[in-house]
Design brief:
Blueprint (H helix, E strand, L loop, with lengths): L4 H29 L4 H5 L10 H20 L13 H16 L3 H4 L6 E6 L2 E6 H26 L6 H5 L3
Antiparallel strand pairs: 1-2
Helix pairs in contact: 1-3, 1-4, 1-6, 3-4, 3-6
């Protein structure tokens, strides 16, 4: 049996975001135990020229939601970047997961060669569906989930590799 575009996208997006929620909740527990406010934790960066934790979360969500929509040939739903607490960040992830799960396999399967056009900071980019998923959407999702994990780990949260990867 071959792996479908749906199987390679939606369940992977959902799992990555679920694991992100898990590490965020552990990060929140740690912050609370150290009397660190949500605002401080959400603005934490690994280094000064990297985006803070909240932007890592928002971009991870955008990569997954826009990825599913574009593969389905739909206009991506917009999610406002207005979270100021860890609870709101987790709620955003939950809303994005619900949105991603609204796409059906028949909307995404067969999108390997679908032309996907997106605007980037450097201009317009056009990719075929498979190249978009494997070379853009998934790598970006995992980059931002990993960076969020690293920010929380550096802040002292008791998280490890199994928290990031989750249960098989």
């Amino acid at each position: 049996m071959t792996l479908s575009m749906y199987q390679a996208s939606v369940p992977v997006f959902v799992r990555a975001l679920g694991n992100l929620t898990h590490v965020l909740k552990k990060g929140a527990e740690h912050a609370k135990s150290k009397n660190v406010s949500d605002e401080v934790l959400l603005q934490t960066r690994l280094i000064p020229d990297m985006l803070p934790l909240i932007k890592q979360i928002q971009i991870a969500c955008d990569m997954a939601s826009r990825g599913a929509a574009r593969l389905a040939g739909a206009e991506p739903q917009s999610f406002e970047d207005n979270e100021t607490t860890l609870e709101q960040a987790c709620n955003r992830i939950e809303r994005v997961v619900e949105y991603i799960q609204s796409f059906k396999p028949e909307q995404i399967d067969g999108s390997e060669t679908r032309s996907i056009v997106m605007k980037t900071r450097t201009g317009e980019m056009t990719l075929e569906g498979q190249a978009y998923l494997l070379g853009f959407s998934l790598p970006n999702l995992f980059f931002h989930c990993t960076t969020a994990y690293n920010i929380l780990r550096e802040a002292g949260a008791d998280i490890g590799k199994t928290d990031f990867i989750g249960q098989a």
